[in-house]
Design goal:
Blueprint (H helix, E strand, L loop, with lengths): L2 H4 L9 H12 L4 H5 L5 E4 L18 E13 L6 E8 L2 E7 L3 H7 L5 E6 L1 E4 L2 E5 L2 E4 H6 L6 E4 L4 H6 L2 H17 L10 H7 L4 H9 L4 H33 L10 H10 L6 H14 L6 E6 L5 H14 L3 E5 L3 H15 L6 E4 L5 H13 L4 E4 L13 E6 L7 H7 L8 E6 L5 H7 L4 E5 L10 E6 L3 H13 L3 E6 L7 H17 L7 E4 L5 H12 L5 E5 L11 E6 L7 H8 L10 E6 L5 H12 L3 H12 L7 H7 L11 H17 L9 H9 L13
Parallel strand pairs: 4-7, 10-15, 10-16, 11-13, 11-14, 12-13, 14-15, 17-22, 18-20, 18-21, 19-20, 21-22
Antiparallel strand pairs: 1-9, 2-3, 2-5, 3-4, 5-8, 6-7
Helix pairs in contact: 9-10, 10-25, 10-26, 11-13, 12-13, 22-23
The chain binds adenosine-5'-diphosphate and magnesium ion.
């Protein structure tokens, strides 16, 4: 890219020092290129004029354009509250325009009985339309100006920025920047070869940039968006695929050819239940990877309760049978301890050695784990992120399992496989399905296994939504279930494990519950994130041994806790939880043969999305369906990992969670190019190399090595 793009924004007509400073501080725009690379997030059709009686509540946050006559103007209020109010009307109604700042300037420009074009976001209260700080211009002035496009781009802004740069001014600045760039024919390098563009029907980069800012038609806008998304994802794929092939060249994966003693005797004598078809299939898939000579990178998706732990354990036995160590990393202390307990039980009589290491391991436990792992005496290490510490040195680590991977940061995971010279095989397990595109980006090029079947005999959990006003009914129901010998969870929202708030919520809730619902006859235990790990464990263990009827907890129990006799999950303030969390919590019940229930308590006032989440929970038990809905409700930006990886790639327009098709296409195209020029060293691929380097991720993280 040439000089003009790197020119500082302050020299652009209409900007100046003060605005330049604000632009840089508020939205990080310093150069002409920065400005042109911020695309509108919405467009307003400026050929469209609304009549006042067409406006309704549903349009409150959208921009509209009105054509009205001024019928009154006055000052209202005093001091800081003083505002300038302009009454306007069209043939269908009246509206009020309000200014709080810049009042003098605007007052001079408003003439009684003159007609204006007004542009802004209406608010409607009791049928009255008002607009704060609209843009306003005499009709004949507005109409005589030549517009670049009828679709006016709306650029994201901040409160401070919008005070100094209006929607229209931003548009003008972008236009001025564009004029500079167009005048310089060397400003843009088209990275894609002509024949590739023709074959894929892609607009040129220059035309796409023009149309993204100044769409010449709805169709052109669509093509422009497509081209720009393609550009970004192609850059991302060139990076990912190049790394992947260098990883494959660097060396293969460990070979685990033997199915030996540990696996066989466990399978023959100790397996506590018949594996489901899905579990068998997944174990075979893992085994196939382990004898392929390539390093395994596998994501295992399986709904809550589908039996992923057993798959993890049995595949770890495969590693052990071949003389390698294996480890499993769980996101919480409770879960790690639970894995340790159940796996120790599984491993009895197998002649293999297990150890556990967590942040709260006492000296002896820690020493046993560290020494055993370093000497090779320990075969399987179970733990939390404490496994990542530098002093954890394996003698011969061959296989790593990461449980509930969504709880770990990318960097944390990356650390695990630097624990060996040659990278171990990796299995990442999750109950929260990740959209395929996102998975491809987050994990380079991974294989996916799915457990799409629950162990037999499970009855679907029945889910109900009660408003707080129906609390007595809920208590009555708990009584019935406890009378049958069942156990109950009551969960309060937790925002962050250490926050005081949650603690308070839990205890307030607990107290008010004890008032309304006398519980002396019940045995209650409490578990929350502020407790010491050993106290948490003690509380959980008590509940697990059926020495408590009710476990009152924050969502520390969200993942993995396994108490088959618990049949009721009450979730307080359920509207405050996300869908996947609700689903995870619900998965704590329904683990035995008894009918289980999930009761979602909520306040009477629910947001639209809050209501949709609770309705979805009542309608389905299918985690995959829920995660798709979650994606729709929240938008891709909020899905775990999207933001993280999108930022890492500094994507402007492509969306890792939803642009699946383009991602697939760019992947194919990247592989095609790299097949003949893996380093993009050929002169004709120079522009592609630049594109690749532009979307290179932060140097420290190599996503493609993260399973
Ligand atoms: P998740 O996939 O959520 O991690 P778990 O591995 O904790 O699920 O398994 C949930 C429960 O189902 C556990 O109590 C486990 O022992 C049991 N389970 C797993 N596989 C089977 C099976 N094939 N048949 C019966 N019960 C099973
Ligand atoms: Mg699990």
């Amino acid at each position: 890219m040439s000089g003009v793009l790197q020119r500082e924004i302050k020299y652009l007509a209409g900007v100046g020092e003060a605005r330049a400073r604000l632009l840089e501080r508020e939205v990080g725009v310093r150069t002409i290129e920065d400005l042109l690379m911020r695309f509108p997030y919405r467009y307003v059709d400026r050929s469209r004029l609304f009549r006042l009686n067409e406006l309704d509540e549903s349009m409150e946050s959208t921009y509209v354009q009105l054509r009205c006559r001024v019928v009154g103007k006055s000052y209202v209020g005093e001091g800081a509250k003083k505002r300038f109010v302009v009454e306007v009307s069209d043939a269908t109604g009246q509206a009020e325009l309000l200014w709080f700042h810049g009042v003098k300037w605007i007052e001079k420009r408003i003439e009684m009985q003159r007609e204006y074009l007004i542009f802004g976001r209406p608010s409607i209260f009791k049928g009255r339309v008002s607009m704060v700080h609209p843009e306003i211009e005499p009709v004949e002035v507005a109409l005589s100006r030549k517009v670049e496009s009828n679709f006016q781009g709306i650029y994201s802004t901040t409160e401070k920025l919008s005070q100094m740069i209006s929607v229209k001014m931003m548009h003008t600045l972008v236009y001025n920047a564009w004029q500079l760039v167009v005048a310089d024919s060397t400003a843009f390098v088209e990275p894609l070869a002509e024949d590739m563009r023709r074959r894929l029907g892609l607009m040129s980069l220059k035309e796409a940039l023009y149309n993204i800012h100044f769409p010449q038609s709805a169709e052109k806008l669509k093509q422009a968006q497509y081209r720009l998304k393609f550009n970004e994802l192609f850059g991302v794929q060139l990076t990912i695929q190049a790394r992947r092939s260098s990883r494959h060249q660097r060396g293969g994966g460990f070979l685990f050819p033997r199915v030996g003693e540990a696996f066989n005797s466990f399978y023959r004598d100790k397996l506590p239940f018949a594996l489901t078809g899905a579990q068998q299939r997944v174990i075979k898939e893992i085994r196939a990877d382990m004898i392929s000579g390539k390093q395994m990178n596998r994501l295992l998706q399986g709904d809550v309760g589908s039996g992923k732990t057993m798959v993890a354990f049995m595949s770890m036995l495969l590693a052990v049978d071949n003389g390698f160590q294996a480890c499993i990393m769980a996101p919480t202390e409770i879960l790690a301890r639970q894995h340790y307990a159940s796996m120790s039980r599984f491993a009895e009589g197998l002649n293999i050695k297990l150890a556990i290491l967590t942040g709260s391991s006492k000296a002896k436990e820690r020493r046993m784990a560290l020494e055993g792992i370093a000497s090779g005496e320990v075969d399987i290490l179970i733990g939390t992120h404490a496994l990542l510490e530098d002093r954890v040195q394996f003698a011969n680590l061959g296989y790593v399992v990461i449980d509930e991977q969504h709880r770990f940061g990318v960097e944390q995971r990356a650390k695990l496989w630097t624990k060996n010279q040659q990278p171990p095989h990796i299995l990442v397990m999750t109950a929260t399905p990740i959209p395929r595109t996102l998975a491809m980006t987050l994990y380079g090029d991974l294989e996916v296994s799915v457990i799409d079947e629950l162990p037999p005999g499970r009855q679907p959990i029945r889910t109900y939504h009660y408003f707080d006003s129906m609390r007595l009914r809920m208590f009555g129901f708990l009584r019935q279930e406890i009378a049958k010998g069942r156990q109950v969870y009551i969960v309060y929202p937790l925002i962050k494990e250490s926050e005081k708030m949650d603690y308070k919520d839990l205890y307030d809730g607990f107290e008010s519950m004890s008032r309304d619902f006398p519980l002396p006859q019940y045995r209650i235990t409490v578990c929350h994130g502020k407790m010491k790990p050993e106290d948490k464990d003690a509380a959980m263990a008590q509940f697990k041994r059926d020495e408590a009827d009710i476990l009152i907890a924050t969502s520390v129990i969200e993942v993995g806790v396994d108490v088959p006799n618990a049949t009721v999950m009450v979730i307080e303030s359920a509207e405050r939880f996300g869908l996947s969390q609700l689903h995870q919590l619900r998965g704590r019940v329904g683990r035995g043969g008894e009918q289980s229930y999930c009761i979602l308590m909520s306040g009477d006032k629910l947001s639209k999305e809050g209501r949709a989440r609770l309705e979805a929970m009542c309608a389905t038990n299918d985690g995959f369906q829920l995660s798709e809905l979650d994606l729709k409700l929240r938008g891709a930006g909020d899905i775990h990992g999207t933001q993280q990886s999108g930022d890492a790639f500094s994507l402007n327009i492509a969306n890792l969670a939803t642009d699946t098709q383009i991602m697939e296409l760019t992947r194919e195209e990247a592989l095609r190019v790299l097949a003949t020029d893996s380093d993009l060293a050929k002169p004709e691929n120079r522009a592609l190399r630049e594109l690749r380097d532009k979307y290179r991720k932060r140097e420290t993280i190599d996503f493609s090595d993260i399973s």
